[in-house]
Amino acid sequence: MSAERHEYDVIVLGTGGSGLRAAIAAAEAGARTAVVCKCLLGKAHTVMAEGGVAASLGNVDPADGWETHFQDTMFGGKYLNNWRMAELHAREAPDRVQELERWGAVFDRTPERKMSQRAFGGHTYRRLVHIGDRTGLELIRTLQDKAVHSGIDVFMETIVTRLVKDGDRVTGMFGYHYATGAQVAFACRSLVLATGGGGRIWRVTSNSQDCTADGHALAYEAGADMVDMEFVQFHPTGMVWPPGVAGLLVTEAVRGEGGILRNSEGERFMERYDPKRMELSTRDVVARSIYTEVKEGRGSPHGGVFLDVSHLDPAYVKMRLPSMYDQFYELAGVDITKGPMEIGPTCHYFMGGIRVDAETGQTIVPGLFATGECSGGMNGANRLGGNSLSDLLVFGRRAGTSAAQAASDAPAPRLPEAELALAAAELGGFLTGDGLTGPAEDPYRLHRELQTVMGDGVGIFRDEAGLETAIGRLHELEARAANLRAPSARLDYNPGWRLCREVRNMITVSLQIARAALMRAESRGAHSRLDHPRYDDYWSEHNILICGDGGEMTLEARPVVTSDELTELVEARQEAERV
Amino acid sequence: MTTQAASTPPAARRTGTPPLGATMRRDRWWLQPVLIATGLTLFGIYSIVVAALNTDYDYLKGGARYLSPFYSPDLRSLFGLHIPFTYAFFVIWAPLGLRTTCYYYRKAYYRSFFLMPPACAVAGRPRAAGRYTGESRLPFILQNVHRFFFYFATIVLGFLWYDAIRAFFYHTPTGTRFGIGLGGVVMVVNVVLLSAFTFGCNSFRHLIGGRLDCFTCSASARARHGAWKKVSVLNGHHQLYAWLSLISVGVTDLYIRLACAGVFTDPHHIF
Amino acid sequence: MSTDGAQTPIADQTGEATTRTLHIWRGDLTDGGLVEFEVETAPGMVVLDAVLEVQRSQAPDLAVRWNCKAAKCGSCSAEVNGRPSLMCKTRLDHLPEGEPITVEPLHAFPVIRDLVTDVSWNYEVNKKIAPFTPKPDADWLIGQEDADRMSEFRKCIECFMCQDVCHILRNHRMHDRYFGPRFLIRLASLEMHPLDDLDRIDQISGEAGIALCNITKCCTEVCPEGIHITDNAIIPLKERVVDRRFDPLFRLLHRRPR
C-alpha cells in the first residue's frame, strides 16, 4: 500500500489560473492548502492565453459596465449560460483584475496610465485587459508568485488517477509521482478540481499535452454530473502545416489587424458566409465557413485555407504580430509579410464541464468543488474570447473560499483502504498487466484511434448517423481500454503509463460529448448539426446534464438556470438583436 | 541501437569540473574568441608603440593642424609642459580605462583572454571548486569604477571634437580660412564613432535615466526617459561602435602619422 | 483541417521520406551515455517531434518533459548539438545535414533520467525573492513606458536555459551563492517597478550574488524570448549596486531621506 500520505484542509488539483487562484483564496481563508499538478509550476495551459482578460473596467470605453458584459456573455453563449454565473462573472471580473495588479501583474496602459483595454469578438466595448500577446503568462506568473508566498505546498509532476470517497463524500485522491512512480495518497476536507479542458481528444488542437480532461472524468466517476458537454469550441485559425505543429493557435489578432481569408481559388469566401462582419465574425461561424470551403474542394494544399496579411506593411506586421511572425518563420518557413499562412480550425476550449453551484463552485458531491475550464455553465453554447481568463479568476477565488469554508465544517478526512487498494490495483495493472481480460492495448495507439473517431464523427459539423457511428466505436474503445498496458514497465518517468489513465479519461469524456451532441437536435453556438441546422425552441431553454453515478451514463435535459432579476437585461438584449 | 560513450563521463559531467573546452557544440565556437583576442592584442600593441614613439603625431603642413587622438589634448601647450618624454600616457589612460572597464569589452576579454568561458556552453578554465569570484573580488571588483572613466573620457572626447573642428580651419597668410581636407574628414568620422561608443555606455545609460524607477511620474522623469531611449539605441549597438571606434582611432592616428612622415600629402581644398 | 486532415498520414504530405540520426543521452545520475536512434523525418519536423517519435516507436520509456509544444511553457529545454534549445522550436532541417543530432539534458541541474533534469532548485531560489510589495500610498497609475521595461523581463517562460548556459552555475556550480540570470531579471522587474516599496539592492548584491556575473552574455544568447537579460537587467542592476556601494559622489548627491 502506498506509504506516502498527505493531509490538508483544501487540496487543489491543477495549477493553471483557476487552480492557483483557488489555492490562494483557500490559503487566505486560513485553510492548510496544497496544489497538485501534472506539470511543473507555471507551465499549465493558461500560459497559452494570448488576447486578454475581459473585465468591464471602462478605462477606455467609460460606457461599459457589468450589465453589458453580462449581456454580451449571454448572447455569445446563446442564452444557455447559467445566468447567475454569467452575472457573477461580469460583476466581479473588474475587482479580480485590479487585484492582480496589486499582486504585481503588469498590463499595457492607456495614456492616462490606467490599464488599457482592447476590442475582441463579441464584446460590445473595448474590454480586454492585456499585455502584448501573452496575457495568460502574465496572469499565471503573478498567481504563481503570489501562491509561493501564501504558504501553499506544491506537488509538481504528480499524476492523480482517482478520487477517493468515504461514503458519499470525496475525502481525497490517489496518484503517483511521475518522476519515481511512487504512489501517493492525499486526504483533504475539500477538494477543488481545476484541471482544465481536454483538447487532446482531437488530433488537431491548440491544447497542451496535459489537457486530457482528467478532472471531467475523475469527477464524473466520483458521481458529479456534467453540463453542456456537446459544446466544444473550435478556434477557426490553427496552423495546418507542418504536421508537427498542426493545431497550433494563430491568434485572432491576425484577423483583427486586417488578415484576409481566401480559398484556393483566391476568393475572399467570408463574403458568402457573413458579408457584414467578414473575417471578424464569431469563432463558430468562421470555423464552419473554413471547414465548408475545404470540404467542397477549395482548400489549400495541406487541407486548410489561406490567411493573408502580406498586403499590410511588413514593418507593421512585425510590430503588431511579432510572435505570429516568428511562429510561422521558425516552424513553417513562411514569411507572413510575403506570403499567406495556411490555417484551419483547431480544437480550443470546452464550454461544458462539471456542473457546479454558481456561488461556491460546489459540485453535487460533498467535498468536491470545480472551477475553470473543467467546470461548466458559465459560457453556455459558445465562449467569448477573453472570458476564460476572467472566468478562472472569478470562480477560482469563489471555489477556493468556499472550499476553505466547507473544510472548516467538514469531518476529518478518512481514506478507506478498500478505495485506495482499488486505485492502486488499477494503476499497477497498467504496468504489470494484472487483471487484463484480453490482449494488451497500447495507449499511444488507442489515443490515435480515439482521435480518429472523434475527428470523423464529432468534429465541427455533426449529424445523427455520424454521431451514432462514433458512439458505437467509442464503446468499442472503452471496452478495449480495460486492457490498456504501458509499453514499458518502468516506474520512473514512464509516459506510456501515464497515458493509460489519460486515454481512459478521454474516452469517458468523448462519450459524454458524443452522446450530448446526439441528443441536442439543433444547431447552436459551437454545436452544429447538419441534420438540424436551425435553433430549436425547446433546446433554446434546456441544458443537457450527464450523470454516471452507478456506472450507467444517463442524459437529461434540464431547464436553463435563470434569474428573475436578470430577465430585464436578457430580454433587452434579445430585443436589440432582433431589431 | 548502440550505446556510445558520452563526451564526458556522466559523474564528472554532473559534479566535477569539465576540462577546458569541453562542449558538444560542433560549430566553430573558437573562431570568435580567437578573432577578438587577435584584434585586441593588435590594437594594444599599436597604441603602446604609438604612445611611446612621441613623434609624428601633430600634422602641421599647409596651414592644417591634425592632432593624433592618442596625443589629444595637447598637454604641453595646455599646461606649458616641457617634458622630454611622451605625454600620451597621461592622456590615453582615460579612454583606455573606459574601454577596459566597458561592459562590452569585459565580455570580449573575459571570453577570449581569460577563458571564463571561451564561448557559451563551452567549459572554461577549470578552477578549484568555489574559487571563481567573478567581479566580487580584486582585481575585477575594480570594474565598478567604470563610470569615473566615463567622466574623464568624456572630457578627452571634448578635446577630440575641438581637434576635429579645428582641422577645417587653415592658417593661411590671409588669415584663418575654412577648408576641407581628407585628414579632417577622417578625424570627424573618428570622433563621431567615438561619441557613439562613449554615449552608448551602459553607465551613462543608467545615470541619464535608467536608475529611475518611474519613467512617467514627473516631467523631468519623462524627459530623462526620452534621453534614456536615445542612449538605449546607441547602447544596442555598443559592440559595433566599440569596434568601429577602435579601428577609427587607429586609422586616424595612422593617417596623421603617415602624412607627417611625408608618405603622402593630405588632399585638401581651402575655400 | 481540424477533423479530416488529422487522418492524413504524415509521410503523404510531400512523399519525401528521409531519415535522421539522433544521439540521445540516456541514463541517470549514476551512469549514462548517448544512444543512437534513426528517425524518419517529416517536413518541418522539430527535435521534439523526433524525440517523441523515438519514444513512441523505439524507446517507450524515454523520459522527456514537454507540454505546450508551442514555445510558450518552457518545459522542453535541452541541449541540441551542444546548445541549449527548446526542442519544440528547433527544426531538424536547420541543423547540419548528414550529421547526427545530439540531444542532451541540461547540464546545470541534476539529471533525473534521460532528458529530464531536476530544476527544483530554481523554485527554491524564487521563494527567496520577496513578492511585489506596493507602496502604501500607491495610486496605481503606471505609464506604458514603465510597463514596457518591466514587461520585457516578465516575458520569461522559465525554460531555465539561461541558468543552464551560465558558467557560474554550469561549470563552477555555485548554486548556493548565485541566483542565476532568470532570477536577476525577476529581481530587476521588481526593483524597477514604480510602485514597489522594497529596497532590493542588498539582496541583489548579497545572496543573489550579482557580482559573480562577468557579463559574458550567454544568457542573452540562448533566451528563446529574446530578453536582453544582460543589457537591460543585469548591467542596470550592477549600476544600481555601484550607486550604493562604489560611488561616494553619487551617494553625496542623492542622499535619500530614510
List keywords for this structure.
heterotrimer; B: 271 residues; mainly alpha; two-stranded antiparallel ribbon; 10 helices; C: 258 residues; Ubiquitin-like (UB roll); Fumarate Reductase Iron-sulfur Protein, Chain B, domain 2; two-stranded antiparallel sheet; elongated; disordered N terminus
Written description of the protein model:
- The complex is a heterotrimer of chains A (579), B (271) and C (258).
- With 579 residues, chain A is α/β, with parallel strands linked by helices.
- Among the domains of chain A are: 235-344, Flavocytochrome C3, Chain A, domain 1 (Alpha-Beta Complex); 429-538, Fumarate reductase/succinate dehydrogenase flavoprotein-like, C-terminal domain (Methane Monooxygenase Hydroxylase, Chain G, domain 1), CATH 1.20.58.100.
- Chain A is 37% helix and 18% strand.
- Chain A has helices spanning 17-28, 66-76, 83-102, 135-148, 214-221, 253-256, 270-273, 283-295, 314-320, 322-332, 387-409, 417-432, 443-457, 464-481, 495-519, 564-578, and strands at residues 4-13, 33-36, 53-54, 117-118, 128-129, 153-155, 158-166, 169-177, 183-193, 225-227, 232-239, 260-262, 305-308, 341-350, 353-355, 368-370, 375-376, 461-462, 528-529, 542-547, 554-559.
- In chain A, strands 1, 2, 6, 7, 8, 9 and 16 form a seven-stranded mixed beta sheet that branches. A five-stranded mixed beta sheet of chain A has the order 17-15-10-20-21, with helices on one face.
- Chain B is mainly alpha-helical and 271 residues long.
- In chain B, 53% of the residues lie in helices and 7% in strands.
- Chain B has ten helices and six strands, in the order βααββααααββααααβ.
- In chain B, a hairpin with a 2-residue loop joins strand 4 and strand 5 (175-181).
- In chain B, helix 7 runs antiparallel to helix 10 (238-260) and helix 8 (202-210) packs antiparallel against helix 9 (219-236).
- The longest helix of chain B is centred in the N-terminal third of the chain and has 23 residues, at 31-53.
- The radius of gyration of chain B is 23 Å and the shape is globular.
- Chain C has a five-stranded mixed beta sheet.
- In chain C, helix 3 runs antiparallel to helix 6 (181-191) and helix 6 (181-191) packs across helix 9 (229-245).
- Chain C has two domains: 5-117, Beta-grasp domain (Ubiquitin-like (UB roll), Roll), CATH 3.10.20; 120-253, Alpha-helical ferredoxin (Fumarate Reductase Iron-sulfur Protein, Chain B, domain 2, Orthogonal Bundle).
- Chain C is an alpha+beta fold.
- Classes of the chains: A alpha/beta (579), B mainly alpha (271), C alpha+beta (258).
- Chains in contact: A-C, B-C.
- Strand 1 of chain B pairs antiparallel with strand 2 of chain C, so a sheet runs across the interface.
